[in-house]
């Protein structure tokens, strides 16, 4: 850190490896006006990660602050090999080449032998898009435009095969653009590699743990699903969420996710309609109800329904043929037959 600057609380968190990533607020369209110059970056579909190096000590931290270095030894080795004593990078962990989220999930495994095997057969890559510290200098207060310039120098020197190093295949520099048309092309790409577009204010310092100064536009898809069940709210009278299903190639009725975020009016109106469709059973594959260490006491309680009601929902990402996040209700589809709702929609 420069001697003329005072150490901040954020600098303390940075030194303690407890700095939370700067996050982005979801928006539905590209902004028409701006307060400062905007940078556009691809939104990668991986594990957000802050990477720390101090001498030979390497630490990788997830979005929630959990340690990741054990699960990605090839990334730790790549960072350790960089001939720079101290740096802190913000980026995304991806499976090299494939950018497959399912394969990324497999890396978080309790068996070290399994981790070592996967680190060689399906190695990861760390895509960096921000630099927060370099040697003794904290860059947290610097504007993004300055940090990006520093990051490009860092990548050229230590990652891209510059004069002082060989090419580092486990690390990559995320592209960026000042042109919104380029960002729109990224968003239109039919590729699982990108989850959307990130929009950053180039004049802003690093806002740890907040959604100020960054926005995101995600790829949104829609699917027609059958409501195979529902959960009550705590009052036991109104609907809390809808459980969704799709038919696979064997005509098995597979649970694929849920719809939450219903309006109060929808919750009240749906209860009597759904109660008329109660059935002894519903889903035949991926049946919900299995509790996990994250489940609350009431998480596994749900009501099966006859397969009659079809809804159109919008969603972003799919993992293991299941919506990774809660889907949003678009409309009811009385014109659609349940058996027309197939798993192909979310392939």
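^ structure tokens above, recovered residues below v
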């Amino acid at each position: 850190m420069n001697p003329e600057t005072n150490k901040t609380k954020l600098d303390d968190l940075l030194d303690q490896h407890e700095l939370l990533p700067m996050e982005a607020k979801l928006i539905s369209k590209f902004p028409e006006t701006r307060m400062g110059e905007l940078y556009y970056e691809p939104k990668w579909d991986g594990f957000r990660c802050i990477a720390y190096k101090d001498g030979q000590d390497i630490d990788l931290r997830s979005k929630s602050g959990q340690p990741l270095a054990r699960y990605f030894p090839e990334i730790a080795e790549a960072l350790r090999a960089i001939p720079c004593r101290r740096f802190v990078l913000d980026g995304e962990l991806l499976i090299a080449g494939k950018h497959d989220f399912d394969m990324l999930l497999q890396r978080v495994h309790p068996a070290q032998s399994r981790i070592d095997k996967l680190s060689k057969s399906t190695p990861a890559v760390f895509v960096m898009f921000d630099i927060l510290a370099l040697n003794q200098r904290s860059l947290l207060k610097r504007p993004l435009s300055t940090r990006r310039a520093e990051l490009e120098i860092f990548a050229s020197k230590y990652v891209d095969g510059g004069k002082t190093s060989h090419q580092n295949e486990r690390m990559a520099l995320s592209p960026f653009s000042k042109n919104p048309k380029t960002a729109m092309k990224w968003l239109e790409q039919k590729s699982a590699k990108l989850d959307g577009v990130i929009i950053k204010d180039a004049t802003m310092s690093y806002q740890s743990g907040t959604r100020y100064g960054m926005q995101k536009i995600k790829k949104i898809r829609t699917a027609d699903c059958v409501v195979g069940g529902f959960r009550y709210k705590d009052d036991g009278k109104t609907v809390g969420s809808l459980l969704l299903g799709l038919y696979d190639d064997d005509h098995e009725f597979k649970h694929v996710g849920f719809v939450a975020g219903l309006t109060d009016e929808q919750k009240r109106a749906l209860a009597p309609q759904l109660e008329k469709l109660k059935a002894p059973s519903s889903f035949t594959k991926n049946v919900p109800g299995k509790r996990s260490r994250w489940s609350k006491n009431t998480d596994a309680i749900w009501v099966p329904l006859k397969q009659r009601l079809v809804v159109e929902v919008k969603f972003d990402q799919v993992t293991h043929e299941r919506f990774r996040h809660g889907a949003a209700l678009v409309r009811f589809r009385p014109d659609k037959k349940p058996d027309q709702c197939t798993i192909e929609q979310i392939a």
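Residues 291-299 have pLDDT under 50 and may be disordered.
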